[in-house]
Amino acid sequence: MKTMPSTLDLIGNTPLVLLKGPSEETGCEIYGKCEFANPGASVKDRAALFIVRDAEEQGILQPGGTIVEGTAGNTGIGLALVGNALGYKTIIVMPETQSQEKKDTLRALGAQLVLVPAAPFSNPGHFVHTSRRIAEETDNAIWANQFDNIANRRAHIETTAEEIWEQMDGRVDGFTCAAGTGGTIAGVGLGLKARNENVTIALSDPHGAALYNYYAHGELRAEGNSVAEGIGQGRITANLDGAPIDTQFRISDEEGLVWVRRLLAEEGLCLGLSSGINVAGAVELAKHIGPGHRIATILCDTGFRYLSTLYNPEWMQAKGLPPMPWQLDKAD
Ligand code: PMP
């Protein structure tokens, strides 16, 4: 058995698994990239490592320094792990609406957690602006700035896209995922297109995000809302700038939840809602390009991060969403 020289070497090189239900339903081969297998249990470990390494290479992050970031949670968890491994402190600013598991995890990892009320990006109290101010006011600190720091998407050009290409033996017809910072869709899109410009790159946008209308009609306009954490963008971040999006789908929480439920009940995969939305998007992409094709998507994080929300029937009912049916009996 091979050994790994450090925790940081555990980031990336995640497995790609055939998703049976989505494949059978569409006549395509649909594969999920198991990003929950990263040490921080999400896709964001990759961006965290690249952002920290980039700051070190630029000489702006000194030994014993502090990494400050605004995040929906997963990037903070990645930064805290990478920071611990390399000797940096972390200060994480998060909207208070994110799951309790993410807050507990960040505190358990030793990050200093700053919770702020959820607010629009135009509000100076928004978590991103708050994190920038804290970084400016803290000695020997950097602002990770995942939304507009393109070291984020470089992680996906250089690692995620290359891994998918290798794992699928260069036979990739389509790729789709949703966007938070946009690092994953833009980076994997650019990386796969560099290998084969005919790969179809599709954005799967949740309700409440503005990107579907942007790519479909050239207008940043959001409609509806979503309880999915970590996705749903309202602007063209630096990471999204120049993303090679060929087509786009708008995916509801209910459509994403069908796949969260089915992948758990039928295939034993416990995932978060952004993964469900990605798989629903992959099914749409399969219908768009037709049967017989090979499609990859991202399984962004573990469902264990959402036991108090998605897998809590009372929480789901309060949000007007269907609980997992096998949990419903126990709730009654
Ligand atoms: N899903 C989850 C659960 C996330 O935390 C994130 C990151 N915010 C994403 C998807 C989207 O990834 P990206 O930031 O690369 O667009």
UniProtKB/TrEMBL annotation:
Residues 9-301 form the Tryptophan synthase beta chain-like PALP domain. One of its GO terms (molecular function) is transferase activity, transferring alkyl or aryl (other than methyl) groups. GO terms for biological process: cysteine biosynthetic process from serine. SUPFAM superfamilies: Tryptophan synthase beta subunit-like PLP-dependent enzymes. Keywords: Amino-acid biosynthesis, Pyridoxal phosphate, Transferase, Transit peptide. The keyword Magnesium does not apply. Pathway: Amino-acid biosynthesis. Gene3D superfamilies: 3.40.50.1100. The keyword Transcription does not apply. Pfam families: PALP. It comes from the Bacteria. Its cofactor is pyridoxal 5'-phosphate. This is Cysteine synthase A.
